[in-house]
Structures
1.
Amino acid sequence: MPELDENARRNLSFWHATASQPPLPPLADDIDVDVAIVGGGFTGLWTAYYLKALDPGLEVAIAEANFPGYGASGRNGGWAVGEMAGMATRFADPATRESAIRLQRAMFQTVDEIGRVTREEGIDCHYAKGGTVNLATAPAYEEHLRAEVGHWASLGFGKEDFRWLEADEVAQRIRSPKARGALFSPHCAAVHPFRLVSGLVDVLGRKGVQIFSGTPATQIEKGKVTTPNGDIKASMVVQATEAYTDSLPGHRRQLLPFYSMMIATEPLSPEIWDEIGLEARETFGDPRRMVIYGQRTADDRIAFGARGGYLFGSKIRSEFSPDEKVFEEARRSLEELFPVLEGVGVTHRWGGALGIPRDWRPVVGIDRRAGRAWAGGYVGEGVAATNLAGRTLADLILEQDSPRVDLPWVGPSFGKWEPEPLRWLGVGIMNRLGDRLDGRELAGEPASRVLSSVYDWIVKK
Ligand SMILES: Cc1cc2nc3c(=O)[nH]c(=O)nc-3n(C[C@H](O)[C@H](O)[C@H](O)COP(=O)(O)OP(=O)(O)OC[C@H]3O[C@@H](n4cnc5c(N)ncnc54)[C@H](O)[C@@H]3O)c2cc1C
């Protein structure tokens, strides 16, 4: 993979264009460390951070194919959200409900933990814990979200975790003519993701972690990571490659790379912000299957995302043309929420790949005998979950008796997705069907719920 020059880096996303990171050298020789980490996204960086917090003398090296924050961690919507993919099936099963509730609480706490670390380490990533507003923009979504409030309450989560806002209460936070009400949760912070990445890189450098850019792992074996210009020998190797995992020999079909696409507007005038609100920088979206998510940035733009798609053969794409239809669709969705935005300039358009495991459940794991540990499969909710994963990996590697090591996502590595063309056909059919039935009912139930049940059934087969 050729190294990107400064200009190409800045073109990757709005976040890359508005934060810098000093260049880091590639690995040029064999080295010997205690822990080698493959992948310089949030998973790898947080793991290194907590390893050094537990044992400052530990020698840790990170091999990153491009530069830290090249992947999803530098390109995302910046929602450090206290939610995690795959929780619905954990809550639904009486055998796993209690442990799932513990995991959920640990995720809430993780949003504050990111705030704590960034404050204490002086990482200025524009962290603002304004909560998240899930807008009921259609009658079916209102029904769905009201039911969700009831569902959380039945699991023991109170109004301090999730509460329904009537339309007039929503308007105190965010003003959209489409909002019929909203589900509000305080457990979310807006961040500038690439500033968070680069801040962590800086802190890790000061703590003595060696980070190598332009250093792709071509093979991971027991005790050794092979890269083009040298090997990293280590008794423990952490795999933190998320959507790019497919390209590692022996790890094909573990995580499906799925694209999410984003736009950023020009900075908006105070008059426009008076009409929209979001004074506390609450993140916002609605429950449509297409997935939309937005944040008010610290420099008063809206960064807004929408689902992209999957490419045959798990192909990884790194370049996106600004003319792609999906960007226009995202803009239309944003204008539907806030008609006052009609005609404002969109200054940045980009995309990125997130990783989806076959059962949609992220995992953290370790195999001591093989000298290997891993974490990933966060789907589109990894900004905060990677922090919990990093803390948990550090605990597991250093054999700490912490409340994290028996959380229910600690377990075996990922199952395998089907070979092509089944994978492509399956994902495509579920997406088309989901979009067509979005907001409708099937047999008296919201179609999204019926489709999820069908999906869960397929996954279990
Ligand atoms: C557009 C978009 C929007 C999103 N929005 C949100 C959001 O708002 N909130 C949220 O919670 N989540 C969001 N996500 C998901 C979230 O960004 C990810 O879950 C999270 O960043 C995953 O971090 P990671 O470190 O595991 O993976 P990544 O950040 O993808 O890092 C993996 C790294 O490994 C490197 N790598 C790959 N192969 C090799 C190799 N062979 N050798 C060495 N290095 C290698 C890559 O270059 C990459 O830097 C979004 C994702 C995208 C794409």
2.
Amino acid sequence: MQIRQSSIRGDRPECPVDPSHRVHVHATYRRYKKADGSDKETVSRWLCTAGCGTISVLQDARLPYRLIGVDLLEEWLDAVFIEGRAPPKATENEKGCLERAVARFLQRIPSLTEVLGQMINAVSPTATQLWVQLRKLGKLRKILRFLAEEFKTSLLGNYRCLRPRRVSG
Ligand SMILES: [Zn+2]
């Protein structure tokens, strides 16, 4: 599964299935950092020795499966849904990614509303209402950690990698 860097309390992640399991460093792999593929960063992967599978650690500045940075997306969503101003400067590649991210966020409104329950005041919130409520939690980095830790989901997708794998047998 995948967890966010800031969810790690000590020097290594806990096994999501059982914190008493031992976790060892397994491998590291390279991941593109920027939408234009110009930059790569190292991601560490851990393994639960009790057989619960691997745990990848995603930097807080990164989104699962998407190449746009968390801070740029936050700025973009603030501009579009809160401030009603022109979105921040971005490269053509980033712009494409950001527009797809916004489209995905709009699709995600019903499921995020359901997951967040009482936290959202409206029954069918607009994108602005939902984004304003989420931003009350803090920066997007914090929102992503909150969604992953509390609800095993993310802003732009309900990815399987965010849920722990059950131990068979
Ligand atoms: Zn385990």
3.
Amino acid sequence: MLDLLIIGGSAAATAAGIYAARRNLNFKIVSKDFGGEVATSGEIGNWPGIKKIDGLELSNQFEDHLKSYGIEPELGVWVEKIHKNNDGTFCVTTKKKEELKRGEKMSENGNGSPVCDYEAKTVIVVTGVHPKSLDVLGEKEFRRKGVTYCTTCDGPLFKDKITATIGGGNSALESSIMMAGIAKKHYVINKNPQFKGDKVLIDKISKLENVEIIYNALTLEIMGEQFVTGLKYKDTETNEEKQLDVEGIMVHIGMVPNSDIVPNDVKKNEFGEIVVNTRAETNVPGLYAAGDVSNIPFKQIVIAAGQGATAVLSAIEYINRLEK
Ligand SMILES: Cc1cc2nc3c(=O)[nH]c(=O)nc-3n(C[C@H](O)[C@H](O)[C@H](O)COP(=O)(O)OP(=O)(O)OC[C@H]3O[C@@H](n4cnc5c(N)ncnc54)[C@H](O)[C@@H]3O)c2cc1C
């Protein structure tokens, strides 16, 4: 039985791991991958102490920092569900990368109870978010064949092509600003009559010569053969259906928290974020959440890391109370 299981492998998990190691907890970090969104963040200029650093490099430094405490996160582990045992401890079921490839299902005991891959007195959930999909025809089919949800990662693949970003917030604006420097021409497809993002980004984008903004444009379909060749949208002012020839589509329409793994009685807000208090405690004793998966405002690396540290300190107090 572990003192603590940390689920996730990025900013919040790293801070949690460092604090847990320094307090000699018997713990593990398990995650699908290491780096999470930090690794795909592009240039980062707001991590204190480092004026400018590439996201991938910062995540490598996070990994090195953990290694310096002898911590090797178990990667390729996909947590399926956290179950609360009757004695208040936790049973965590997972799928490993190989099982996922084979499409195997979670195994159960004869009595229907799950077979635990990890058992722990406390669990910290730091699983972040994933991009929302458009749910339109062709989106699934052309995923990684011209449709991407990470412009920082895949944008350079579309050098000198005609591309489009779908979305109207900061992430869509940043994607479009980046693509303006890579693509021959770039469209911004915004379903609303205006952007929701920061004024500084809106001002910047309106000055870019190879960027065309299309407002009131509801995406209907992504078209292609082997790869994307275009998109269809409805002009919601005229109800007219229109088509654009594009070879790359960046979808930036929001994020969904990776919060399905928590027990069903854990409180979430309307966005599916895990509700925590200022001590990173959920409503279930011994279960904590931190970083982007939680309801903390402002999804930022420094905030996720701070909250990861808070979660461990709270977990230590909880364990100490159990042992009294
Ligand atoms: C393009 C972009 C640019 C950004 N730029 C900045 C910036 O300049 N400055 C800044 O402060 N912030 C920036 N951010 C935000 C920042 O990246 C996030 O706030 C931060 O990464 C959140 O960290 P986290 O630890 O909560 O989660 P994440 O970084 O999202 O990591 C979640 C981890 O959990 C793992 N995981 C998820 N589900 C499971 C599961 N079921 N089982 C096992 N593991 C799981 C994932 O594999 C991943 O390792 C940017 C984000 C994006 C997308």
